[in-house]
Amino acid sequence: MSIVRQEDRTWGALAHVLPLVASVALGGFGWLVALVIYLTNREKSPFVAFHAYQELWLHGINFLVLAAALILSITVVLIPLAILLGIVSFVLMVVIPIVGAVQASNGNWYRLPIVGALSRR
Q1: Tens digit of pLDDT for each residue in 41-58?
Q2: What angle do CA 24, 30, 33 make, to 5 degrees?
Q3: C-alpha distance from residue 13 to each of 20, 24, 83, 108 (Å)
Q4: Structural domain spans, the chain
Q5: What pTM value is reported for the model?
Q6: What is the DSSP annotation of the chain?
Q7: Dihedral through CA 74, CA 75, CA 80, CA 82, nearest 10?
Q8: CA 38 – CA 42 distance, rounded (Å)
Q9: Weakly modelled stretches of the chain, pLDDT under 50
C-alpha cells in the first residue's frame, strides 16, 4: 500500500465535494467539475483521478435513475416508485460523495458503493 501525499488527499476529497456543490449551484452540471478534475489529474495523480472517475460514474448512474423516475412519474400508478427513485437519487448524490470525500481525505483508495466496481485503479 502506498502513502498518499496530503495534496492528493485534499484533491481526492474535492473530487467528491466540488461536483456535489456544483450540482446544487448549477442544476446538475457537477459532472463537468468531476470531468475537469479527472482530466487534469489522470497523468499526475492516479489517486485523484481514481476518485474523480468514480464521481463521473456516480453522476452517470444518477442521470439514469432520474430519467427512470421521470418516465415512471408520467403514469399515476407508478408515482410511488418514481418517488422511491428520487430518494435513491438523493442518497446517491449527497451521502455517497460525502463518504467518498472522507475516505479520500484519509488517503484510502475507497471504492464507492454502486460505482466502485466500474471504476478502475
Answers
A1: 999 999 999 999 999 999
A2: 135
A3: 11, 17, 30, 10
A4: 6-105
A5: 0.86
A6: -PPPPHHHHHHHHHHHHHHHHHHHHHTS-HHHHHHHHHHHHTTT-HHHHHHHHHHHHHHHHHHHHHHHHHHHHTSSTTHHHHHHHHHHHHIIIIIHHHHHHHHHHTT--PPPTTTTTTS--
A7: -30
A8: 6
A9: none
